[in-house]
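Collaboration report, partner site 2.

Our partner group contributed sequences for two proteins of shared interest, and the home lab folded both. The records are reproduced in the order in which they were received, starting with the first partner submission.
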Amino acid sequence: MSGAGSAQATANRRAAMLKTAFGPVIGAALEDESVSEIMANPGGALFIERLGVGRERQDAIMPACDVERIIRLIASHIGAACDREHPIVSAELPGTGERFEGVMPPVSLAPALSIRKPARRAMSLADWVAAEAMTRGQALILQSALARRENILISGGTSTGKTTLANSLLAEIGRQAERILILEDTRELFCSAEDVVALRTAPGVSLETLVRSTMRLRPDRIIIGEVRGGEALDLLKAWNTGHPGGIATVHANSAEAALSRLEQLTAERAHEIPRALIGEAVNLIVHIGRRGDHRRVEHILRVKGHDPLHGYCLAPADPQQFSIVSEGATL
């Protein structure tokens, strides 16, 4: 058997072992398009989160030995150590790309894991309204902002639904005849548009590098899964110089704090914080909060620039100010 054939045979064996280790409940969840996250806790409790439903505890119990086996198989797949000196395994599931995080003692009392699935179908804005996760007025604001090619920054904490909302907005954009460039660390965004180029980071290729490369790929809209470094400066410049209509997400505890976060990130590259640029490039901030299992769009703020004396000019977005809605859109 050739070297390539042997490697493929090994990969196939690992995939088969991993499928068996997952068991029927996790296996079915991985195939379910509505599932967004799978979590096995140290005590054996298994939780599955679904779009529009939230997190639900399953009847099945995951024994610690089964969770440990899964973690060790994933570690073997990526060639990583998994022992008391290396108790955390971060990876993507082989073949399908789901984001995997496994932890072992001594950092946890017993093995635990989380699998975050990239969306295979997007919630529509109407779904958000039906789930009482946003108001009809907020949905109208977002539809109109997309139609007007305004730049939208989505903020929130971990697992508040930033990526889910970004995919909902991409679903709206997908109806337009535009060229979409999507940049990510981990593949979580998708767009049904005919002309889409999805790029991801790789060893030696940062988001900052991808943003610069994107400018030579003739984008109509530039989408970034999560802004977390110096690429923020290049993105803002792109949004402000002929490539409007972008979407990005950022970790922040409020809409106002999202701008502070951008300041911190641009400071990694700029000698002076480009507050005027931030005020011009970001048009809307959508902040998502979470209370228990319920996610909700808490605020949508319009950014009207930056005043050197008074700071950013912010105002609640008013549905009455948004009269342009994508043709054929219904809520």
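Second partner submission, folded after the first:
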Amino acid sequence: MIRARHPAGTCGRPLPMSSPSFLDAETTNADELTAAISTGFGYRIAPTTRALSHRQHVIVGDPVTVADVEWDTEVRVAVDSTDEVMFVQVHSGAYAFNPWGAEHVIGEGEAFVMPPDQELDFVIDHAYASTCSFSAQVLRRVAGEIWDDEDVCLAEGAVRPVDAARHWLWRRTVQEYRQQVLETPEVYGNELLRAQATRFVVVSAISAFGLVTEPRGGAEESAAVRRATAWVDEHRREPITVQDIAAAARLSTRGLSLAFRRERGQTPMEYVRLARVDGARADLIAGDPTRGDTVTSISADWGFSNAGRFTALYRQTYGETPRRTLMR
């Protein structure tokens, strides 16, 4: 069964839109599934499994669409080539597919991007996921504005997030866009606010998944950011200030902040916090509760004085609690 709520006078994926469209679908029928995916996402698919169970909640915006999708069985799906770029955060189960001619399996807590202009074959195994999508045209336009270059190229081979920090920032950005823009009529109806929020979603995706081959003109600044992140990674257990990072990068503090915003979509200190969370995760994995290792003690070793805030940040980054990691 497919249930849709569209703005007056609209259906499917109309553009422009004064308000988002909401589409809910629940089906065990392959033909209904094909129609639901086409209406909600603009994809043409061909299920090769007749026994299936699928639910989806889709919010179709202009130009960003987000959704929650759930598959209660293992399903094989062939996806036609499209101009759409879709990002998928897997909450449970697994997706196996073949972007760029290589086989990938994406499991719980991981994310991936479906590149445009490729025919893809999926095996979806009892999966629950959230998605975010927009056209490759929007991606190229925003990337061109960032680098002031009309000929930016989409990077080949991009599938997974570049690192945990950018993955976390992308997830938070999409969550905020959904709640504060798509689900807030007064914000969505303001074209300027929606345009700026959309740009941040696209920039976050470019940064998180390494979607664009950066023009040569940006190499010097990228080298500065690489110096900064390498220094932070080496000193992340120590007290760190923005001034320390700027000195390592050989930039002013303002130049450092602008470079991080432009290239990574985050502040320098956000990178520090996530680098420390990554270090804490390694200690949690190696930890042993029978030796007295605790989440509180390990987080404190990494500079987190508030265990509750550490737990929240850790869960947002890795999709599980630090206690669960420690107890494995």
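Feedback sent to the partner group on the second submission included the following. The chain has two domains: 2-209, 216-328. Residues 296 and 308 are 9 Å apart (CA to CA).
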